[in-house]
Design goal:
Blueprint lengths: L7 E6 L7 H14 L4 E6 L1 H8 L6 H15 L6 E5 L4 H11 L4 H5 L2 H14 L5 H10 L2 H7 L2 H4 L1 H10 L5 E3 L5 H17 L9 E3 L28 H9 L20 H9 L3 H10 L4 H27 L2 H29 L4
Parallel strand pairs: 1-2, 2-3, 4-5
This protein binds adenosine-5'-diphosphate and tryptophan.
Adenosine-5'-diphosphate binds next to helix 1.
Length: 353
């Protein structure tokens, strides 16, 4: 890692399944840009995955490994940044305990993501049932029943996330806009710690939002694994082609030469990403100069080369587990050193040392 780069960047992703193009254009591609400018720590947030899936950890290790393979194939460079698994840095768990002592419970209970994720957990529990039925059941649950479904670790999610960031004294944290509330709590915890102990040990980090905040999924909603509307990294080109051909388009366009509105069309959103000439496509679409099928075929042609090359790089890392382990061991070593330094400072300030 280049230690002449002054400012520090930290970010993580939960290994809850395969990454998709929304994750790639919304977050991962930004990691690759940032690694050239800052000292970066990128980690697989396996402890955060446990906050909602502690009862079934069968897929956790495989998901973590697949995530790292995607990162490497996307160009996250282990020579430029530390890539590691969160739980391989035990200092994080220790500092989480300490910062938990100064975090008011109200901050966690008021965290809007807490209720939203609880909702999501509930929805999964009743998967297969109508959303409406699930919503009604949810509304009938008392506070006591709700808190029975949740856990200490789940409520403490923001403290763990704040620790991930503060332990490396990060200046910037590239995240999606859905993480705004968590970032506020991280800043508040840093400030409160510094106030209580009259110190400047912890830095207040700033979120860095990406230029593609919302990639639409096949059905036009936000691409998300919980909606089942994703194109995943590493998918076979033939499967991607099928998905592209099924993408949501302007429902008012009935015939190939009907004029249409490209805004709101998933195919056009992807042209904006893959097609340097997307403005021309916008005009063609509005003028009814091109049918959706031709437009989709063209989009897939633009995607195919990138996908094939990505999959090749993926296969390379997939086939070399020894290299993968070496990268993760080295990344964890770098992260442990940085984390240990902050942890020591914190313990000194708290008079534990
Ligand atoms: P999912 O919604 O599929 O569960 P996550 O919440 O795990 O995805 O997201 C991981 C990262 O990818 C976050 O930084 C998030 O903001 C970003 N991200 C996820 N979906 C999209 C999307 N459709 N468009 C842009 N960014 C996204
Ligand atoms: N909460 C983040 C998400 O769901 C993942 C995460 C955990 C994270 N710790 C972090 C992101 C620290 C940035 C920095 O996407």
């Amino acid at each position: 890692m280049d230690h002449t780069k002054e400012k520090i960047v930290v970010s993580g992703m939960r290994p809850t399944g395969r990454l998709h193009l929304g994750n790639y254009f919304g977050a991962l591609r930004n990691f690759v840009d940032l690694q050239n400018k800052y000292k970066c720590y990128f980690f697989v947030a396996d402890l955060h995955a446990l906050t909602t899936a502690a009862e079934n950890t069968d897929d956790l290790a495989a998901n973590s490994e697949q995530m790292v393979i995607d990162w490497l194939a996307a160009g996250v460079d282990p020579e430029k940044c530390a890539i590691f698994i969160q739980s391989h840095v035990p200092q994080v768990s220790e500092l989480t305990t300490l910062l938990g002592m100064i975090t008011p419970l109200g901050w966690l209970l008021r965290n809007p993501t807490y209720k939203e994720q609880l909702n999501e957990l509930f929805r999964k529990k009743y998967a297969g049932q109508e959303d409406k039925v699930a919503a009604e059941k949810m509304a009938m649950l008392s506070e006591a029943e709700l808190s029975e479904m949740s856990s200490f670790g789940f409520l403490g999610y923001p403290v763990l996330m704040a620790t991930d960031i503060l332990i490396h004294k990060a200046a910037y944290v590239p995240v999606g806009q859905d993480q705004t509330a968590h970032m506020e709590i991280a800043r508040d915890i840093a400030r409160r710690f510094n106030d209580i102990y009259s110190t400047d040990t912890l830095f207040e980090p700033k979120p860095l939002f990406t230029s593609v905040p919302k990639v639409p999924g096949l059905d036009g909603r936000k691409m998300s694994k919980s909606y089942g509307n994703t194109i995943d990294l590493g998918e076979d080109p033939a499967a991607v082609r099928k998905k592209v051909m099924s993408m949501f388009t302007d429902p008012n366009k009935q015939r190939a030469n009907d004029p249409a509105n490209p805004e709101g069309c998933t195919v056009y959103a992807f042209h904006k990403i893959y097609n340097p000439d997307y403005q021309k496509r916008c005009e063609e679409c509005k003028a009814g100069a091109l049918g959706c099928v031709a437009c989709k075929k063209h989009l897939f042609e633009l995607m195919e080369k990138e996908i094939t090359e990505f999959n090749k790089r993926r296969a390379f890392y997939e086939s070399d587990k020894a290299l993968l382990n070496k990268i993760l061991e080295r990344g964890a070593q770098q992260a442990r050193e940085s984390a240990e330094a902050t942890l020591k400072e914190v313990k000194k300030v708290m008079k534990l040392l």
